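agent> fetching stored inputs for the calcium ion docking request
agent> found them:
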Amino acid sequence: MNLVIFTCNLSAFLVIATADCPEKVFKRIPLKDSLFSNYLHFYADVTVKMCAEKCVETSTCASFSYIQTGITKCYIFQDRVWPGLNQTYQQHMVTYWLLAETCPLGYTYNISLNVCYKVFTNQLQWLDAMNLCEEEGGYLYLGNTMERFQIIQNLEASYNDIVHIGGTGRDTLWSWLDGSEITNSLWYPGEPTNFEGETCAGIIYRDNIRQALDQSCTAVRKFVCEIPTRFA
Ligand SMILES: [Ca+2]
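agent> prediction call returned; pasting tokens
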């Protein structure tokens, strides 16, 4: 088996090429250090390449997590794992997803941002929306740059209410699902209000602008999913 680390400007990519199966591409997903309990297999004292190889060998594997400190640990998963609301965190844990070839049907590809995204018109609670995005192969949309936020700004008028996106927190500890801070410039004036139970992020449309707000996780809203692919 021929293993190659792909060292272009996207150093987060790990490419596994084999003689008898198509090239597999893994991408290090920008999620917080998370420790997941629902793994298919566990391996100790292996390299990250060996861990990726174990995933390729496991037909149902969609992602793996890896810790390089101390005795290396490799966890193989059936799902593309993501940090849930009550996830355990372990510093230095990194997660790679086996990437899809293209944007799924119904998703829009934004070439300048390299992102596949879809706005959903059905309304769900935040966690149900996140689970649906996960079933699609991704997660709730990360608005973690001004450029990414612009996609939200350009939503049709039919989304002129609150929309779920991929951020959680409370008090002053608010972050996108990749762990990056929700910066002050993205909050709607006066938000986050940190009212009781408002621990999920959304986008509100008011006064001709869309900005972030904290809101109840149990409110049913439209939502936006994004899917990482081997080119996005
Ligand atoms: Ca609020």
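agent> quick read of the result: The two ends are 26 Å apart (CA to CA).
agent> awaiting further instructions
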